[in-house]
Specification:
single chain, 420 residues, alpha+beta, 4-stranded antiparallel beta sheet, 12 helices, globular
C-alpha cells in the first residue's frame, strides 16, 4: 500500500471513528488528574454520585493491607490493591507482574493447568494464574515442567476506568467493524462479550484486563480480590484451596454501610479522573508534529484518540449500574480501542473469548504512559522505540510506516508519546 493511499484511508478512518464513538454536541472532555475525585473537579461540591469524603474512605480501603485473619490466601500475589496499582499515585500501574501458565492439547488448544501443592497431596485445577506467595509452605505453588506455555503480565492502571466502564458496548463493536476498512483489511480488533458477575452472568462487551476478561468494575474488583489476594467475596465465594485456611467464606464482610470491600474498590475506580497529559510538553512543536505522525502512520486505528461515554442515566452492566453525570457524555482520550488484537506479542493464554484469543491482547491504553519505565504486557521492554518495533501481526503495516520515518520524525513521535 502506498503512503498516499494510506493517508486517504486514514482521513476517511478519522471521520469514521468520530462517527462510531458517538461524539455529541453536549459531550464535554473528561476531567484529568492523578487520583483526584471527580465531583470536586467538576462541581466543587458533593454531587454527580461521588463525594470527596467517600473517595477518601474508598481509597483507604483500596490501600488497606490484608493479613491472614482477614482471609488473605492461602495463595496470593499481593496484600492490598495498592501493591499492584500505585504509580504515580494510588490506582496507577506498577512494575509488578503476575504469572500465567498452561499447555496445549493434541489439537493445539490451550488447556488450563493443574498445579500440585502440599508435596502433591493437594492441587489447584483449571486455573492459569499461578500465585507467587502463600500463607504457609504447604500452599506454595510451583510450575510443573509440562506446563510449557508461560507468560508474565504487568499490572494495569485503573485510573479513569469509570469512564471506560461507561462506554457503550455498541461503540466498541462499531470501532471493531470500522477497522478493516481503515487499514486495507490488515487490522481487525475482536470484540468479545463476557459475563457480568453482579448481573447473574448477563454478558456485556469486555474491556478490562489483558484479555478483556471483565466488563464491569465490580466484576473486576471481585476477580482481583479472589485471584490476586485470595479473599473470597460474594461473587467468588470459595478459595482455590483450603490448605492452611482458618477463615470462613466469604471473607469480604459486609460493613455497617451495607457495602463490601469490592463495592468500595469499584466506587474508588469509578470516582477517579482520567490520567492527564503533560500539557507543557504537548504544546511543543515536536510533540505536535509527533501527534500528527502518530495519526498519519496509522497508530490511531487501534490506539483510538477519543471516545465518548454513554449519556448519564444509561443503564449498563446488565441493569446493575446507571451511568452518573460525572461519567456520562464525557470525551476521553485513552489511546485504546479496548479490543483484542494479534500484534505478534500474544502470550498464548486463553481466558474469556475462546481459543481464537490465545495470541491476542487488549490494546494497551496509552494514557498514563509517561509514568511507566517498563512497557508492553510483560514489562519486558524498556524504551518507547523498542515497544513500537516489537509490534507485528496486524500492526505490521503501521510499523513499516514508522520505520520509514526519518530519525527526527521518530523522535518527534516518541516525544508525543512522552506527553501521555
Amino acid at each position: 500500500m502506498t503512503r498516499r493511499k494510506l493517508s486517504l484511508i486514514l482521513c476517511i478512518a478519522g471521520m469514521a471513528v468520530l462517527a462510531v464513538v458517538g461524539i455529541a454536541q453536549t459531550a464535554t472532555n473528561a476531567p484529568a488528574a492523578f487520583a483526584t475525585p471527580l465531583d470536586n473537579a467538576q462541581t466543587g461540591a458533593v454531587g454527580n454520585g461521588f463525594s470527596a469524603a467517600t473517595f477518601t474512605a474508598d481509597m483507604g480501603a483500596f490501600m488497606n493491607e490484608e493479613d491472614i485473619p482477614q482471609g488473605i490466601g492461602p495463595t496470593f500475589n499481593a496484600r492490598g490493591c495498592v501493591d499492584c496499582h500505585m504509580q504515580p499515585n494510588v490506582g496507577g500501574s506498577a512494575q509488578v507482574t503476575e504469572l500465567r501458565v498452561g499447555h496445549l492439547d493434541g489439537a493445539g488448544n490451550f488447556v488450563n493447568p493443574t498445579i500440585p501443592i502440599n508435596d502433591g497431596a493437594n492441587s489447584i485445577p483449571n486455573r492459569s494464574l499461578v500465585n507467587d506467595r502463600s500463607i504457609c509452605p504447604q500452599a506454595a505453588e510451583r510450575v510443573p515442567g509440562a506446563e510449557n506455555v508461560r507468560a508474565t503480565r504487568s499490572s494495569l492502571n485503573v485510573l479513569g476506568d469509570g469512564f471506560v466502564e461507561a462506554i457503550d458496548s455498541n461503540t466498541l463493536n462499531n470501532i471493531a467493524n470500522a477497522q478493516p476498512g481503515q487499514s486495507g483489511g490488515a487490522i481487525a480488533g475482536q470484540f468479545i462479550q463476557v459475563p457480568v458477575a453482579e448481573a447473574g452472568g448477563t454478558v456485556r462487551g469486555g474491556r478490562f484486563g489483558w484479555k478483556n476478561q471483565q466488563a464491569s468494575l465490580l466484576s473486576f474488583a471481585s476477580d482481583a480480590y479472589i485471584n490476586e489476594m485470595g479473599v473470597t467475596n460474594r461473587f467468588a465465594p470459595t478459595d482455590f484451596t483450603t490448605v492452611c485456611k482458618t477463615t470462613t467464606d466469604p471473607e469480604d464482610e459486609t460493613g455497617p454501610d451495607g457495602l463490601n470491600d469490592i463495592d468500595r474498590f469499584a466506587r474508588f475506580m469509578r470516582a477517579t479522573q482520567a490520567p492527564p497529559q503533560d500539557t507543557a510538553l504537548a504544546a511543543t512543536a515536536d510533540a505536535q508534529t509527533g501527534a500528527n505522525l502518530f495519526n498519519s502512520i496509522g497508530c490511531n486505528i487501534c490506539h483510538v484518540t477519543s471516545i465518548t461515554t454513554a449519556p448519564a442515566g444509561t443503564v449498563i452492566n446488565g441493569g446493575a449500574f446507571t451511568v452518573p453525570a460525572a461519567l456520562g457524555s464525557k470525551v476521553i482520550h485513552p489511546f485504546s480501542d479496548f479490543l483484542l488484537h494479534n500484534v505478534g506479542t500474544g502470550d498464548g493464554i486463553v481466558q474469556n473469548g475462546g481459543q481464537a484469543t490465545a495470541n491476542k491482547l487488549r490494546t494497551a491504553p496509552l494514557w498514563g504512559l509517561r509514568t511507566r519505565d517498563r512497557l508492553m504486557h510483560d514489562n519486558a521492554t524498556f524504551t518507547r522505540n523498542e515497544a513500537i518495533l516489537r509490534h507485528g501481526g496486524e500492526a505490521t503495516g503501521v510499523i513499516n510506516n514508522y520505520q520509514a520515518l526519518s530519525t527526527t520524525q521518530k523522535n518527534q513521535l516518541i516525544t508525543f508519546l512522552q506527553t501521555l
